[in-house]
Amino acid sequence: MTHTKAAHSLPETSLSSATAPSIPVSAWLVALVLGLLTFVLYLPTRHYAFVTLDDPYYVYANPHVAIGWTSDSLRWALTEPVAANWHPLTMLSHMLDSELYGVANPPAGHHLTNAALHAVNASLLLVALLMLGSRAWVATVVAAGFAWHPLRVESVAWISERKDLLAGMFWIATLAAYAWYVRRPGWGRYLAVVAGMVLGLLSKPMVVTLPFVLLLLDVWPLGRMRWDDVFDRQGRLRFAHRVLEKLPLFALAAAGSVVTFLVQRSQGAVEGLDAFPLPRRVAQAVIAYAEYLAMMIRPEDLAIPYPTPQALNTGELALCAGVVVLITLLVLWLRNRLPWLSVGWLWYLGTLVPVIGLVQVGTQSMADRYTYLPMIGVLWALAETLDRSIAGRRGLRVLASVCLLAMGASYYIASREQMTYWSSPQTLFARALSVTRDNGAAHLGMANELAAVGDFRAALPHYERGTQLEPRRAVGFFNYGVSLWERREALDRAVELFNRAQKLGYPHEPIDALMGAALVAQGRDEAAAPRLALALQSPETAQFPVAVAATGVMLARGGKLNEAIALYEDFLRAKYDLVIADRLAWIRATSTDDTLRNGAAALALVARGEEAPEAGNPEHLAVRAAALAENGELVPAIDVATEALRRARQLDEAQAAPRWKHLIERLRGQLERYGNRQPMRESPAQWSL
Questions:
Q1: What is the Cα–Cα distance from 174 to 242, expressed in whole angstroms?
Q2: Sequence-separated (6 or more) residues with CB below 8 Å from residue 290
Q3: By C-alpha distance, which of 328, 333, 337 is closest to 385?
Q4: Pick from 13-22, 111-120, 572-581: least confident
Q5: What pLDDT is recorded for position 129?
Q6: Of 128, 137, 148, 122, whose CA–CA distance to 296 is shortest?
Q7: What is the pLDDT of residues 351-394, one digit of tens each?
Q8: How does DSSP classify residue 305?
Q9: Strand boundaries in 123-202, DSSP class E
Q10: Confidence tier at 581 by pLDDT (50, 70, 90)
Q11: pLDDT digits over 124-181, tens only?
Q12: How far is 431 from 366, CA to CA, in rounded Å?
């Protein structure tokens, strides 16, 4: 069988000539204006606070990042994973921000860096599309849609998603470098492509799909091969050449995938098939593909996090599968006549593979940030189709431009509105709870935020519901137990929750410390002893002063008050802590043993803590009043104890916690003694935590 020359020729859209298309000055100006408008769009985020989703790990509670650029922190960034990912370039970026701006809240500088990176990506995408041969109108539509769509808000307003922005920047830069290389192949230009991919992988592992996208671009718009090349010998040779050309990139992708999987598995982030069977994962992936398309068209009810449904809706699955299959069959049928449709659609399908849930990381099924790069393929395919449909029709082009301008403005406004939900962690989780159902992660997030501001009473129902919906999330059970402990309420339940968290793999050191303290508070010293012993043996003991405080109470109850004092003094010599200082000051001020009381030492301990943030806590004020009374200053002691009682009553009214009720009773006893001109006296048998 013979073939004509035309059958073997590359498509007419081929742009693989040696001469690169010149980018007019007007296009550079459009790119600049687009970047500036995008930066202005996200300026309000500079007033927004850190959120408790990942931000502690990436920035403000990470000592390596908070300290800025040092030799130790640089070494750490290059060798240690964070939040179950190894992305050293991302961590170096956060460290640079900390060096420049610090980690004060609100973190204006960190937010502005995110906004600037996204603005650069918008401008860079427009330029890269022009280098790949797109018309200026198409490139502008795609770049503006990418930059202003509400789905981008999560990647920009969330400081921890710096990795999205960096990876996106290097991804887009690699596309431009590849277009540059194709027009005049050479080692220097090829190394630019490799460097772009390496930098992208060091920012976020999602870049592993980049070599596959470059193969798609070889079909269209670069025209270096055809979809039907697999059907003839010459075509297969051409295809093999394009694949061999990218072997170093595929090797980088394979290495990045292996490293990412190993790191995530070692951090316990990869869910096993017993938790999420493979058929369930495939079904959820199909639904996600269709739902992301719907979110692109109608960006409503966006939230973080989205929960994985407890049970699949077979009707929804059938509909979503039908949509995905129908679009796939259609673009493949049109692959030669309209190649941009198949390229854009396969770009979308392929770039979502690392995050579509086939390898389940965590419990959420979807995330707005996952569309950062995949959405470009869909936008490009649609914009190219529209452009060719109205080619040579001036009136239609004007009408389409006006409609797209209105759509862009609506996206801009919608992004501003979506942004407001990121203004604080509580508004973020409240939004998620209002637009999703059975969202265990959102309940736990809201509970953590309420607990962080001391509203444990409001946090408890969120913890209860969250742990019901997320029965495998160890940190949820641990934080639930902590909230009960902070209220000194239902301590049997707190012990049960700590046990559950430990069985699910939560680190044993904080569990030993808090469970031991809860048992001591219940008077179960014998059961507490082994737990507290383990906590005190940990090299992280300094992080758990509650274990030291509880051990001291246990020793004192057992008649070993001198050992308790020595324990507290040793701890304070190594690290000051207000709770331990107050424990020691209470002994020095109230002990029934005359040889152990020392009013001056008690006052010195109290004075040392006056600058601490917790110095206004009524528990500290109670200790201060006792120290004043021991030094004969009964009138000031009454004033301080009265203020402590007022604050304790306020806390009790707000929280109705046993902790404050007990303190109120103790303060009443103190005031009664001071009114009788007697200092406070308390035996170890009366001590509590």
A1: 17
A2: 319, 320, 321, 323, 324
A3: 337
A4: 13-22
A5: 97
A6: 148
A7: 999 988 776 555 567 999 999 999 999 999 999 999 999 988 99
A8: P
A9: none
A10: very high
A11: 999 999 999 999 999 999 999 999 999 999 999 999 999 999 999 999 999 999 999 9
A12: 16
CA distances from 402 to 135, 326, 407 (A): 18, 31, 9
Nearest CA-CA partner of 471 in 432, 497, 437, 433: 497
Give the pLDDT of residue 6: 38
What is Dmax (Cα atoms) for the chain? 116
Structure tokens belonging to residue 571 = 């701890």
Residues pairing with 85 in the sheet = 82
Query: How far is the C-alpha of 198 from the C-alpha of 205, rounded, in Å?
Result: 10
On the question of pLDDT at 314 being above 50, the answer is: yes
- Using DSSP, how many helices (H) and how many strands (E) does the chain show? 33, 0
Where do runs of H (alpha helix) occur along 298-355?
A: 314-333, 339-351
pLDDT at 281: 85
Residues 6+ apart with CB under 8 A from 131: 20, 21, 23, 175, 176, 179, 180
Measure the CA–CA gap between 485 and 689, rounded to whole angstroms: 10
Query: Taking the CA atoms of the chain, what radius of gyration do you get in angstroms?
Result: 31
**How much is the mean pLDDT over the chain?**
90
Residue 101 burial (CB count, 10 A)? 16
Question: Contact 305/442 with Cβ under 8 angstroms?
Answer: yes
Sequence-distant (6+) residues with CB within 8 A of 297 are none
Res 683: pLDDT: 82
Asked whether 627 and 674 are in contact (CB, 8 A), the reply is no
Structure tokens at 282: 């495939």
N residues, the chain: 689
Q: How far is CA 553 from CA 518, 532, 549, 558, 618, in A?
A: 12, 11, 6, 9, 20
398-413 in b/e form (b: 16+ CB < 10 A) is eebeeebeeebeebbe
- CB of 400 closer than 8 Å to CB of 378: no
Name, in order, each residue with C-beta under 8 angstroms of 142's C-beta and a sequence gap of 6 or more.
Answer: 125, 126, 129, 134, 376, 379, 380, 383
CB 10, CB 109: distance < 8 Å: no
